[in-house]
Amino acid sequence: MKKAAGKKTAGKKTAAKKSAVKKSPARKSAAKKTARRKTAAKKSGTRKYSAGASKSVEREIKAMKKGQLKSGRSGKKVTSRKQAIAIGLSEARKRGARVPALRSR
């Protein structure tokens, strides 16, 4: 009987070790990444997007919410928030507002 009791406690110890191993190595790396982004933004000292660019994006998002925003060639209604932002940034670039260059695919 004593041997069986010893086996049960050994099983509990291994379960406790396994749960301790699984905890939060990803959280630490995510925290480091956000800290790096914040310091990088502080180093530049200037805005990436100008105020005019943010206003054009805001205008396009409002038009999308009203259902008035259409895509360029096809003329279909835009339903995606990301697509509305892309349209706003594209128009800001055409006007000459300060917007980072497009990423190559």
What does this structure look like?
- InterPro entries: DUF6496 (IPR045468).
- Residues 1-83 are annotated as: Disordered.
- Pfam families: DUF6496 (PF20106).
- Residues 1-46, 64-80 have a biased composition (Basic residues).
- By secondary structure, the chain is mainly α.
- It has a domain at 51-95.
- It has 4 helices and no strands.
- It has helices spanning 2-22, 25-44, 51-66, 81-95.
- Helix 3 crosses helix 4 (81-95).
- The longest helix has 21 residues, at 2-22.
Low-confidence stretches: none
How many whole angstroms does the radius of gyration measure?
26 Å
Distance between the termini: 68 Å
Give the number of DSSP strands. Answer: 0
Order of helices and strands: HHHH
Share of β-strand residues: under 5%
Mean pLDDT over the full residue set: 79
Given the structure, what is the number of helices? 4
Described by its quaternary structure, the protein is single chain
Largest sheet: none
* Helix share, percent: 55-70%
Derived from helix and strand composition plus strand pairing, the structural class reads: mainly alpha
C-alpha geometry: extended
